[in-house]
Amino acid sequence: MKNNIKSFQDFENRLKKEVVPKSSCDSISISKALSRKRQQPTVIRKSVIIAFFTIFITATLATANELTGWRLFDNEGKQLLTVDSMIEDEAEMYKDIREIIAPYETTIKDLKTALPEGKFFYFLAVEAYEKYGMTSVYAYQNDPPLKNINELPVEIRERFHLSEDLLGLNSFSGGVIIYKQPDMNLEEAISRNEAMYVEAKKKKAPYIIREENLTTDIASLNLTYNNGLEHVQIAIVPSTNNGLAIMSETKQEYTKLVEKDIEFLFNQKIQELYFVKEEEGQKYMIHILGSKFLNEEKIGPEKLMTVASKILNW
Amino acid sequence: MHTKVFEHALENTRDELISYLLKEYYHKVYVYCFQILRNAQDAEDAVQEVFIKAFQYKKLLNIENYSAWLHKIAYHYCLNKAKRQSLIKFISFEGRANVQDLDYFYNPDIDLELDEIMSKLKAKERALLALRIIEDRDFAEVALILNITPATARKRFERVKVKVQKIIERNNQNEK
């Protein structure tokens, strides 16, 4: 990048002339939302749509506390990952949505099982939608399981140094490639949800679903290794995902570790480790989840770090 | 810019006022949010939240200076958003253009050099620059929005100027 800004004056001029990216939605979206009195303001929060597209991380209720979060840096001091907590009222909202949807869990499970390959569905519970709007519309998919590590493309296996066994201790027991749902235009999402809602009301149904096609892009890759007693789960998320939602009430349980100038985030209690692997300009977020026996009190990060070392090819 | 007189000349009905405020301030507030958050998607979310919050206010018809009021809501919203984002974004400011939005990345109009400087400033500082430089507001107006005195606004602006100048110098040295 060429540095043409030499003074504050240059900076000021350039700031004035800067082309701000065009907004993909407009004031009409707000008018529409406001004209529908039954709906709460959260209807058009685009980040939430994206948040729900990232399905491998389980959302847990957050409590507000003083910690502001962490930032993970690489060995050049470049920021790779930011972890922040969710604000309390948002967390309350998600909790409420989950409670409204809870009675339909068996139905959702059956619907997922019956899904044809390459498809996913939106699930709109009328009560939740009336209360929280678009935020409450969830998407579910049922990606086919990986039975053998060799079913993974060789490029992926090589990039993350994945093989049938993990450090000679655990062997591959299963996995899944989660495909991305198509990116959506906010206006389209609003009208789709509206149409679903209207149809549900017309049918006097408590919920409604809409089936759509998945893309062929990978949203995340989840693998499990075990040795009969313990297991290790690895989730790899290409950074081309727009972002990941994580909500944690256990924020204070995390510790930042540094090894060979790479930063890791470790949770001793639930035995999990986050870090970012960079290769050929691409960033991948890696999440390793280990198992813990009930009688084990304190386990350090060593076990998970060994797995991370393999993925990092140290 | 419309004046208070114009705003008060409205029929004082809530719906008309809402339409007017959206038409008049939506884009301005969006640009302001963008300058603070430096991310189009976050700015979109923010501007929508700001207006929805504003329109839920029961005494909406009694506001004296809508522009300042909306900017004030936007300022607090964006600062909170910057502080407590509910998403893990392993896309830092530096890497954002690479992965988050390809349209953004390939848009030749995007000023990456400027973007880099802005990313090194705090959200509060970006807000101040947006008000002063882009919106060309005087320090009294800036102070009103940021809830500080005009003298403090002026001092802060001078400090940000120095900070920007240092960033520029550092960037230019690295270039050499």
Q: Can you give a write-up of this model?
A:
The complex is a heterodimer of chains A (314) and B (176). The longest helix of chain A has 18 residues, at 186-203. In chain A, strands 5, 6, 7, 9, 10, 12, 13, 14 and 15 form a nine-stranded antiparallel β-sheet that branches. Helices cover 30% and strands 28% of the residues of chain A. The model of chain A is unreliable at 35-71 and 240-245 (pLDDT under 50). Chain A has one domain (38-312). Chain A starts with 7 loop residues before the first helix and ends with a helix. With 314 residues, chain A is of the alpha+beta class. Chain B has 176 residues and is an all-alpha fold. Chain B has one domain (4-175). Chain B has ten helices and one strand. The longest helix of chain B has 26 residues, at 150-175. Chain B starts with a helix and ends with a helix. The chains are: A alpha+beta (314), B mainly alpha (176).
